[in-house]
Amino acid sequence: MKFMAVLTSGLRTAPPLLLLALFLLSAFAPTLVHAQPATIIVGSEPSGIAYDSAKGELFVANYGSGTVSVISDSTNTVVANVSVRSPLGVAYDSAMGEVWVVNEFGSAVWAISDSTNAVTASVPVGSGPFGTVYDSGKGEVFVSNYGANSVSVVSDSTGAIVTTVKGVNGPQELTYDSAKGEIFVATPGPVTSPTSTVSVISDSTNTVVANITVGNSPYGVAYDSAKGEIFVSNSASGTLSVISDSSNHVVSTVSVGSNPDGVAYDSGNGYVFLANAGGNTVSVVSDSDNKVIATIGAGGDPTGVAYDSVKGEVYVTGYGAGIVSVISDASLGSGTSSSTTTSTASTTSAASTSSAQTSAISSVTSSSNSSSGSSTSSSSSVSLGYLGLVAANAVLLLALVGLVALKRKNRRPISGHR
How far apart are CA 126 and CA 180, in angstroms? Predict the structure, then answer.
C-alpha cells in the first residue's frame, strides 16, 4: 500500500517514464505468450498412442471410456471409435495391418484391423498387462504383464502365445531395437520391491540378457535407430536415461520436467519427445548432444507420445483432459541448447531452455498440417517481445528510482512519537 501511495503521488511529477514503461509492457508482453499446440478431443483418460504409417492414422487408448479413438493425420479429427475394455498400451503391426491394444482388466491383448477398425482377435496374457510393442523381425507382439512380473510373446500370424518371459520385475513400457533384435522393458518393480532398471530381452532366445540400472521409477522407453540408443523416462527422478545398445550401459542422464512419462523418437530430426505429466509440458531432447532444446506447454497431464514420420508431427495424449495435442517438429528449428551435459553419473541441467529455441515453437492448426510460416513469425515476435520486456523493466526501474528520490527530497521531518 505504501508503495502504491508513493507511485500515485509521483504520477504528476514523472509521467513520461511511467507512461513509456506501461506502453512497452502492453505492447510487447502479449508476444511472450507461446501459442499452445492444437488439440483433438478424444475419449476419457487417453493413455497409450501409436502411429499407423500405412493408413496415416493415430490409435489412442482411452482408458476411462473403454474405447480406442482413430485419428486421421490429414484432418486431425477422430474418424472412428472402437470399443475395447480398459485399454492401455498400443502398438502398430505393419505386416498384418493391425493395431494391438492391451486390455488391462481382461488380462488380454486385442488386435484391431486398421482397414475395418474392428476387433479381430483377443489373446489372453498375464495379469495386469500394461504395455505392448511389435517386433518386425520376428512378427511377434510383446506384452508386459505388470501383475505377473512377466512378458508375453504373441505370434501375430496365429494369435497364439509363443512363450512367456518370467522374472521381469513389474514391467511397464517396452520398445523394440531392430538392430539388435532386442526388447527393452522399463521395470520399476512393485512398490514393495522397486528395482529402477531396464530389462533387455533377446527375441531370438526370449530370455533376459541384461538388467540396466537407471533412475527412479522408469516408465517410458524409445529406441533411437540412428544412434543405437534407448531413451528411458525416470518418473520419480525427473530425468531421462540414455542407454547405448552396444554396451547396455547408461551413457548420459538428462534433467527434464516433472514426472516424465511417455517417450517417442523423431527420426526426421533426431529429437526425442518426452511427456512431463507433472508439469504439463513436453521436453524435446536432441540426440546429437543429449541436451534439452525446447520445452513445450501441453495441458491435461501429458502421458503417451507418438511420432508421425509422414507429417513430421508429434501426438501427445492428455490423460487428465481427454485430449491429444499435436506438435509440429518443423516449428522447433535448429541450434544448440543452453544446457550442459555430463557423463554417466552426472545430470544435464534443463532448467533454462534457450529463449531462441523456445520462441521457435508455434501452434499447429487443426485444418492445416503446415506451420512453417507461423513458426517464422512466432520466432521473430517472441524475440522482440523479450527485448521489449527488458526495455520496459529498465524504464520502470528508472521511474521508480526517480519517484523515491523525489519523495525523500520533499518529505517533512516526522515526530519521534508514533
Answer: 26
